Amino acid sequence: AVRFMRLHLHKKRSEVKQSFLQLAGVSLLKPLKGVDPNLISNLETFFTLDYPKYEILLCVQDKDDPAVDVCKKLLGKYPNVDARLFIGGKKVGINPKINNLMPGYEGAKYGLVWICDSGIRVKPDTLTDMTNQMTEKVGLVHGLPYVADRQGFAATLEQVYFGTSHPRSYISANVTGIKCVTGMSCLMRKDVLDQAGGLVSFAQYIAEDYFMAKAIADRGWKFSMATQVALQNSGSYSIGQFQSRMIRWTKLRINMLPGTVLEPVSECFLASLIIGWAVHHVFRWDMMVFFMCHCLAWFIFDYIQLTGIQGGPLCFSKLDFAVAWFIRESMAVQIFLSALWDPTISWRTGRYRLRCGGTAEEILDV
Questions:
Q1: What per-residue confidence (pLDDT) applies to 253?
Q2: What GO terms describe the biological role, i.e. biological process, of this protein (predicted)?
Q3: CA-to-CA distance for 355 and 86, rounded, in angstroms?
Q4: What's the fold here for domain 1-11+25-147+175-234?
């Protein structure tokens, strides 16, 4: 995973071969709900993309949502950008993101659709980088989730997670051929999605990104990872929000992939204990000495990986990293047990009960 990261991520533009689809039109689907302090600056980066043929389809569910005013402000500021605002959504299932995006998807005029979350910010050449990866046999291009530099310990904790634990499994899965995709930033062939029934066919799932990727893979298409990370830059975050997000993601993974119940043994402290116990019984080594050495090696390699994904200097000190890393690793088992304890999830403004296989039903207040 570290070798792939070093060779693949943060390539200079001149090092990336141009794709036959580089000049293909792209329809950007942007689901919006609510406003945080960074929304307008994040959204504005999409209006300044250096790409010859794309459209921005802004989708807002509620006409009274303050995001509507942000969209109108940007539409007025960039009149020469091909952008439209869709308000109201279309109820086709339990997934609020899909419901929100339906009018934009139906109005998309290009063969490639780029679904990108509201909290993502991009560079001028991000879309060029993604289309460069969309070669003849590739049906989906995705970005490795990461976090922009922000102030505060909660931001450091989130950045440490998305620079250590998450990419370790995410990159390893993709290197070994396992289809592992998050829907924060995905470029897909619209005709392939339409063959699978269009967006509406994924509205029964909460984790629509997993099932969209599966549908594309099942039709024989390959995946490719962009050389730029999907940079999350939400202006609203806290340790509680981070913890809730991790619990929700764990619940979804357990529901879709039962093998996730073994996930805790891949975390540093539990893995080190198990391996330490094994070497103690096989080689008669001191268990606690091995445990401490194993954790130290894990810690060092995580720091190396984080700096590689960052692609530059970190915005926090090594001491901040050590504290955040220790807290994140300590939270891992508690997050997993919390996910097992309650099968329901809260997302956006709704609550949902997960069913085996990935479908869900909305829990309505009586």
A1: 87
A2: glucosylceramide biosynthetic process
A3: 31
A4: Spore Coat Polysaccharide Biosynthesis Protein SpsA; Chain A (3.90.550)
